[in-house]
Automatic annotation (TrEMBL):
<feature type="domain" description="NAD(P)-binding">
    <location>
        <begin position="8"/>
        <end position="190"/>
    </location>
</feature>
<dbReference type="InterPro" id="IPR016040">
    <property type="entry name" value="NAD(P)-bd_dom"/>
</dbReference>
<dbReference type="Pfam" id="PF13460">
    <property type="entry name" value="NAD_binding_10"/>
</dbReference>
<dbReference type="InterPro" id="IPR036291">
    <property type="entry name" value="NAD(P)-bd_dom_sf"/>
</dbReference>
<protein>
    <submittedName>
        <fullName>SDR family oxidoreductase</fullName>
    </submittedName>
</protein>
Length: 216
């Protein structure tokens, strides 16, 4: 089984990813936690965890034995510029660099729609600029990667159906459940390898939408 490090494991999307991977026959999730008291969540789930902080210098211990990384950490669009820069940009860059050093096979990044045009979204501009910088660093890292840029995240029940494109017209929403499945499906090689794409709720089943996108 491939060991998958989930960065942002205590967030809503991260927890969903852990739950799904914990029932997988192919992947073994490892939750990256920042606070000691967070370990109980994953001990109860019988999920391995590693203690590390994106704002610390050396992240290499967190990547020991890890084959792939899903980065779904985020300060959120409502956070001030300083915290956003620390987590969404500098933190992401640190873990990307550590992953490269550890010879990780694939890095999956949860980004955001609008990261290609931050100036068009004034309220979220600093957040999207940080996401864009992290995405660009990943693309230039030499790692195999997938960058998923969903629309506005909702807590609605997932439908398993999406609309995907390298660039979608307009905006839209998507349940966190479906985003979790998109990130997990991106672990499969060579599906959506070295691709950046946007995602909103739609009419096409996730698997076939991803296969179709990979063929373009």
């Amino acid at each position: 089984m491939e060991k998958i490090l989930i960065v942002g494991a205590t967030g809503s999307t991260g927890k969903r990813i852990i739950e799904i991977l914990n029932n997988s026959q192919s992947f073994e999730p490892v939750a990256m936690i920042r606070k000691e008291e967070q370990k109980e969540i994953f001990d109860d789930m019988e999920v391995k965890w590693v203690h590390a902080d994106l704002e610390q210098e050396d992240l290499s211990p967190a990547l020991k034995g890890v084959k792939k990384v899903i980065f779904c950490a985020g300060s959120g669009g409502d956070t001030g510029p300083e915290k956003t820069t620390e987590v969404d940009e500098k933190g992401a860059i640190k873990i990307i660099d550590a992953a490269k050093k550890a010879k990780v096979k694939k890095f999956i990044m949860l980004s955001s729609m609008g990261a290609d045009e931050p100036s068009k979204h004034k309220k979220l501009e600093h957040y999207l600029e940080a996401k864009a910088a992290a995405d660009e660093h990943l693309r230039n890292s030499g790692l195999d990667y997938t960058i998923v840029r969903p629309g506005a995240l909702t807590d609605d029940m997932g439908t398993g159906k999406v609309k995907l494109a390298e660039k979608l017209d307009g905006s839209g929403e998507i349940p966190r459940d479906d985003v979790a499945f998109l990130l997990i499906m991106s672990l499969a090689d060579p599906l959506v390898k070295n691709m950046t794409f946007e995602a909103i709720e739609g009419e096409e089943p996730i698997k076939s939408a991803m296969i179709e996108l990979s063929r373009e």
